[in-house]
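Re-run with default settings, no changes from the original entry. Doing this only to confirm the output is reproducible before filing.
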Amino acid sequence: MFLPRVTNARVRKQAVEGFYTLNVPLNERFECRIAGRYQAVEPGSAYLAGPGNEVDLRIGQDTSTLVVNIAADLMDARWLGPEPEDPTPRGEPQVFSLASPAGRRLFGTLSALWGEVLRAPLPTGAKLDFEDTLAEALAHGFYHPGRFSLQYRKAFGERPSVTLRR
């Protein structure tokens, strides 16, 4: 699960076997390509592409999107997508409402999954590494963890990742 914020972009993801890709606009609409035509996906709805289907999106200004890749075996076992009476064959790209029974079921499952991710134990030492890194950053005048990379680049003329690679 991740929440990218994208501005004026076309996003294309190659077809991946074994996974469904779910894209949910959180604040602004985006467009998805289905059967050669672009279709609007408004907040309150979702775009689902099954295994083996390319994802092709056009995203506008400052659009935040929830992106989830769901293992096909989990999806097929619980069928979290649109209702069986939907004429679209299972796995074919489609847009559906999150207010529908399938949308509510999917949202409930994602909420439970997200809760499990947040409750999962950290790998041994991960918290200590984070605390040590944060303490070191604070000691050197980097007071806002979310702006660390920007401040680091201003101070040292390169990104932290470049420094780490050396």
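The CA atoms of residues 4 and 113 lie 19 Å apart. The longest helix spans residues 101-119.
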